[in-house]
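Slide 14.
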Amino acid sequence: MIEPLLYFSSGFLMKLADDLADDTTTRIAGAITGILCGAFVGLLVTISSDAPYIFFGVFIGTLLAGKIDNLNHFLAGALFLLVALMGGLPVLEPVTLLVCVLGAFLDEFGHDRLQGGGYLSMIFEYRLILKMGILALVIVPYFIVWIHGIGWCSFIFFLLFELSYEFTGRFDEHLLGSL
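Slide 15: predicted structure.
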């Protein structure tokens, strides 16, 4: 199944592109990584019924938070939109998309502004708002049938994306050292 592989690869590429943007000696590698990330996420939203909610939510939320702020992010976003447009944009249910946008926005906003100690900073350090929102979108449609929601498999795949992102962040010193 290609979907979990795309989630995992996208998390790895997204974090690597983000970290390469901070290093001026790896501009070409960062740009290539950003392009690959955007292409992978774009492909993912064309083959999955739930990924468009998650990744358009992430894209819009990070855009609103001002986090698309370097060449690697711009290239990733541009390729994501291009591939998604070429694959055909799905019609998205507004409540599910709004939960994903707000979760991504709050995660990015809080991650930069609420550093320090305590539970609140831990929530934003690991960007748990979007994860909790997606979990709610898995459960709520059982009770409110007009909300599209997110399937259990997609939630698990998104956690795979997040684990890949986090582990890449923890080990990228070794990865970046070899570039």
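Speaker note: The chain has eight helices and no strands.
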